Amino acid sequence: MSGMLYAAYPGALAMASVLTNQHISLFFILLGVYLLIERGAFSEGGTPPSRLLWSVLAGLSLSFGNLMRPEAVLVLASAVVAALVLLVRGAQGRKSLLVPLCAMLAAYFALGLAASALTSGLAPDGIGNNRPEWKLVLGLDTESSGMYSDENAFILEIENDAARHEAAREAISESLAGCESIPAFLWQKLKLFWGAREDLGYVEGGLPFGEAAVLSGERAAFLLMTALAMYGCVVLLRRRAGAVELLLMCLVAANFLCYLVIEIQPRYRMFIMPAVFALAAAGYGQGREKRV
Question: From its record, what is one biological process in GO terms (predicted)?
Answer without folding.
Answer: lipopolysaccharide biosynthetic process
